[in-house]
Amino acid sequence: MIKLFYVTDIHGSNVCYRKFLNALPIYGADVAVLNGDLLGKVLIPMVEKAGGGWECHLMGMYTEMNTEQELADVKKIIENAGYYWVHQTRDEFEATKADPKEIDRLFKHAAYERIQQWLELADERLEGKSCQVYICPGNDDWWEVDDMISCMKIVKPCDNLVVDIDGHEMVSCSRSNPTPWDTPREESEEELAAHLDELCGRVKNYEGAIFNFHVPPHGYSLDLCPKLDKDMKMSAEEKIHAGSLGAKQVIEKYQPLLGLHGHIHESRGAQKAGRTLMINPGSEYSEGILKGVIVMLDKKKVKDYVFTQG
Amino acid sequence: MMDAFAVGFMNQGLTPSIWVVVSLGLGVFLGGNLIYAAIISAVFAGIGFPLVWGILGGSMPRSGGEYVYNSRIIHPIYGIAQSFGDAAIWLMWLYVLAPLAVDPGLTMTFNYLGWTGAANWLTDASWHTFIMASIFNVVGFLFVVFGIKIFARVQKIVMFFGIGGCLLIGIVLTITSRASFMSKWNTAAAANHGPTYHAFVNQVGVAAGQVMPTHTNWGATFGTMVAMSWLFAYAYSIAFIAGEVKRPDKSIIWANTFAIAVPFVFMLWIAIVLYKTVGFQFLNATAWNDNNGNTLASMAHMPHGTNFIDLAVYSLGSSAAWARILAALMGLSYVAFTVWWLALSYLAFPRILFAWGMDRMGPKWFTDINPRFASPVKNHILCLVLGQSLLILYYAALHNQMQNILLTGMQVTSVFIPTAIAALWFPYSKRAKGVWDSSPYKKWTFLGLPVVVWGAAVDLVYLGILFYYFAFNAAAKQFTGPGLILFVGVWVLGVIWYFSWSAYNKAKSGMDISAVTYGELPPE
């Protein structure tokens, strides 16, 4: 039996990433998969004040920092929530506000720096440990992230690959069907279905296979999210299925042992599709809570699974 | 926000709760002043409850109620034990409330319409009442099982009728003068061989063995606050959908606040106009009479009883069609809120099981979400089966045991006090340090202490008053016999449940599940 620890959608949260690494020995995981989305969504300018100190807007609140300690404390809050920060003078801040390209550059710089730090920390902490760790991006992650993962010593990439996990073939896909946010790895349903079918066609033994798709299959309980109105506001009372029809097709067609999914943070749960157990552990990264699932796998069956949080 | 408010407000059960306040509260604690009690309750509950439940819900916005907070802040055993009590309470409300929706709810409404035959049929055999209560039970289930969208839409309609009927009661009592009320009462008495206004007060005094009070008794005023908790303490139901509201950091706390403020306005208004229109002493007499089953012999032929809705109907002073319709709308308000309470049990109980299931404190199917309705349908069905079984048991065996005030007492000891303690401890809990550190309320302080601590302290003072009266006061004492067994029993069952599932999980997966589901991971 192997113990697989699966986490998804930590979106740049430093504390969640560190908890993920720390959880491996605590949970006794043989294999760990950190699924995307890895990148955060917010860059916060920390602007120098005229009389000394810094100021920023954090979670809708104006925040002042007058000492280095206060600055460090706020940076930590920002990093733990999955946000990025950048130091700026007032002039730099004003100039950047009117320059979307510069904002994009600063954001990518901060985001890649965070990923690089994470990967180096993993190599440092996991050296000499027996746990295999795979990282797969999600639809929010730019393609450059793949190159960064593939350069690492211990952490292994798995996107678009079939990898062997103690006799279980795991096939992974970071792409998603279209979303309202126009993210980097979106494809039309037709393209995604074709891509997934080609990818899953490489698997030799479906009986023990694991389909690690960032998007959950459409129409099950793992892809329910609030409906958005035309102003992109969430409905509190109406939920829709936002998963992928392509993912649904290949899971129902090939019937792997296990489906691991993320993408829809609020749809933490597990459901069966034929013989396939599909799991979405959900995400509460912005609260600093690491949600995950431990799956105990025998050769041809899922012995048990436990949702985790810490 | 609107839907969260509605879930909280509807669980305060405006019209039936005012009934409980007047008939049960005043009927037991003669001389209590409803105006003072409402103001004191609103100040304590209005500060304490939104801060406790709003801050905990906004910091841990997950559906499942206070189990989530208590298990994370204090300890999983504490969370399961108190939550077991709460789950039992939500189930028990089904068999307590479904019969109330029938009698007095429907019987009163039918009588107001002049359909006395139908009203009598409902109560002339217990199986008649049972059938109608079962129908209400199933209707409550159907309102919820098809998902939150349908629930929210029906809730708006029910709320419209509920508030509308209560508004009518208030308006009628407001525009009726004391002289007019006395005249209409005396006219009805003359036509139905009933007691006059003054004779009624005297006769109740004889039956009660004491002269009906003419002025405020402060001890009794605090006593009426136990019954008044029905109007102010139940917006906590919002916690069961905390994971399903938008902007939980703001919505939950504000929804709690408004769900207390609106009932307060109604209670204050109704209390003022009741004293103005029917008089202090007469109101005490009506409360005692109603709380003691309206058994005064001289009232046998009067057209209505003496609850506060009846008093508004007497104030109409007419049996014309318009008056019958207005009266029926007032009665329907009682039915609407009571039936919605059943629906709210079906909202809460399945979500408690869902939260347990997520922590592997129950079978895996507790966490199954129906993909079509986006709701835990299996848990809903379990709730229906258990609720209906309890209803059968209630009619077959229990009947007068374990009712209203007992459940309120159990809610105080199993839900409100344990959760207030968790809120008090939240900023200092090592177990929940990560949650507190990322809480949007971490920086809310007052006089150097976190606001949640102040909220919990105010809440505990309020709950302390309720606890004293319901536990030790001779009139409402519940710490005897079945009550005590029930209070302790559900906690013991909860602890057994926790250890049973822990052992089962360990045997099945070889892991200490508690460490995995509740444990804190090193953040550095």
Structure notes:
Chain A is α/β, with parallel strands linked by helices. Chain A folds into 2 domains: 2-39 and 119-309, 4-Layer Sandwich (Purple Acid Phosphatase, chain A, domain 2); 43-107, no CATH class. Helices cover 29% and strands 31% of the residues of chain A. Chain A is built from 7 helices and 18 strands. Chain A has helices at residues 14-27, 68-80, 90-97, 100-126, 144-150, 189-200, 245-254; strands spanning 2-8, 31-35, 43-48, 54-58, 61-65, 84-88, 132-136, 156-157, 162-165, 168-173, 210-213, 224-228, 234-241, 258-260, 269-273, 276-280, 291-297, 302-309. In chain A, α6 (189-200) links the parallel β10 and β11 (210-213). Chain A is globular. With 524 residues, chain B is mainly α. Chain B has one domain: Amino acid/polyamine transporter I (Up-down Bundle), CATH 1.20.1740.10. In chain B, β1 (445-446) and β2 (449-450) form a beta hairpin. Chain B starts with a helix and ends in a 7-residue tail after the last helix. In chain B, 57% of the residues are buried. The chains are: A alpha/beta (310), B mainly alpha (524). The interface between A and B is large, with 43 and 44 residues.
> What share of the residues of chain B does DSSP label as strand, in percent?
under 5%
- Which radius of gyration of chain A do the C-alpha atoms yield? 20 Å
Rough shape of chain A?
globular
Which CATH architecture of chain B?
Up-down Bundle
CATH superfamily of chain B: Amino acid/polyamine transporter I
- CA-to-CA gap between the ends of chain A? 24 Å
Please give the share of residues in helix of chain A: 25-40%
State the name of the first-level CATH class of the largest domain in chain A: Alpha Beta
Rg of chain B computed from alpha carbons, rounded to a whole number of angstroms: 23 Å
- Mean model confidence by pLDDT of chain B: 90
Strand pairing plus helix content of chain B: what structural class?
Answer: mainly alpha
Task: Give the strand line-up of the largest sheet of chain A.
Answer: 8-7-2-1-17-18
Give a short account of the largest sheet of chain B: 2 strands, antiparallel
Low-confidence stretches of chain A: none
Spatial order of strands in the largest sheet of chain B: 1-2
